Every structure is written in C-alpha cells, then in structure tokens.
Fold this sequence. Notes:
By secondary structure, this protein is mainly beta. It has 3 helices and 13 strands; from the N terminus they run αβββββββββββββαα. It is 9% helix and 27% strand. The protein starts with a helix and ends in a 9-residue tail after the last helix. Keywords: Glycoprotein, Signal.
Amino acid sequence: MAIGVGGCCAVLLAAALLFSSPATTYAYDSLDPNGNITIKWDVMQWTPDGYAAVVTLSNYQQFRHIQPPGWQLGWTWQQKEVIWSMYGAQAIEQGDCSMSKEGSNVPHSCKKHPTVVDLLPGAPIDLQIANCCKAGSLSAFSQDPANSAASFQIIVGHSGNSNETVRVPKNFSLMAPGPGYTCSRAMIVKPSRFLSPDGRRATQVLMTWNVICTYSQFLAQKVPSCCVSLSSFDNDKTVDCPTCSCGCRNEKSTTGKCVKKNAPDLQSIIHGPGRW
C-alpha cells in the first residue's frame, strides 16, 4: 500500500517528536522559570577501588533560600558502591555493612540509596571542608552569592576507578527541606577547571557530572490549602473537597472536610437526602 507525501511527512514528524521528547519531566516555577539548584560532582582523584570527589550544591534560584533543617540529597548507586568516608556532610544512615571484607575499616555508609545532609556549624575541624557546615542553609545566588553554595567531599569504594569504568549515580532526589524539587539525570560534562591563587596556572579535575534540580509549587503542595465546593441547585450531590484541604493538613482531629455536614449557613439553601 502506497503512502502519500502528506502521510509520509506525518509519519516522519511523529517519529521525530517521539525520539526527541525528553526522558524526564522537570518541575517548573512560573515565578522563577530559570531558577535551579545545580549539583556538581568533581572527581578529584582515582583510588584503588573507586574515587574521591567534591560535590557542590549551588542555589541559582532568585528568591528561594534554603533554611534549616536544610537540604537533603539522595541518589541510587548503580553498582555495589559504598561510601568509605565523608567530609563536610554525612549520610543519615550507615546501613548494613556486615558484608564488608575490609577488616576493621568499616564504610561510612553501605546504603544502596544513601541520603546525605550538611554538617552543623561547629563540626570538628578534621571533618570540615570549604563551604560546609551551615546546617543545610543555602542563600539565593542573586541575593547572597557568597553563601549560595555548599560542598562536601566523598570517598567512594567498590566502584569503577577510571573514566571508562565509573558508573554515575542515578535517581537523584533533593529535599530543601521539604518536597517540591525534581532532579534530572546525571549528565557527564566537560571537566571543571580551577585557577591557582596567582592566576598563572589552571588545573582540571578527572571527571565531572551535573544534576539540575528545579522547584514546583504543585509538587510541594499537591493538596490545595483551600477549597471551594461548587454544584448546581438541581444536582443531587455536592462536590467534595480533597482530603485535608482548607488548612486542616496538620490537624489530626479533623476529618479533612471543608464544611461540616450540618453547617447552618448552608442548610438554608442546600437540603434534602443525598446532598451530603
């Protein structure tokens, strides 16, 4: 069966749209459409069974500051990686390290899905690095650039230890401090470069990958804070509000209804069986 020119073009257009569509749907904030929190992993050194990296979170949002209890960063390892040690941050759970065969050298975390938090101010000096230990606070770059970034160092083991064998983490998540952020897949980019203090020498890291996390108010608050139930007078039933709307989200004693069943201000106009 022959396909006309118009049909052929339609098929090609549909195929192009299918293969060019993004694999991940990102959050969107209409008040700050270009704002994001960028997470950059810089591999500084290969180790016998993995690598040492510096991870930096940069808050490129215009208005949204991250306040204590601060950010929580999570991901999923692709292989059987462990975290040998961390500086400037810590994993909130060690997990089951009973399978470790390293003798007395027990990993900092053996979780498949680790979650990392910033250290508190006043942490021991030997656990600090630059831009750490702010209790998870991050200022917006447009308002306070000097305090818009946080960093920590992570020593990863049981991993690849070259550009060809390392597997970047996946399924990144960010709580800052609550929900609302959607994170992209880790994308390998051009290695970061650094200038010496005198500006006469440039060095670069061994490998870099970036993750972009964007904010959406709809993801942060899926149930509206207020609801108006509407129905016509000739309808037998009213439309219920979503559970825990109208400010009852944190009130355990409430049922989640917007208006009580026997509210006197509604009985005058809505009455009869089946309407509640």
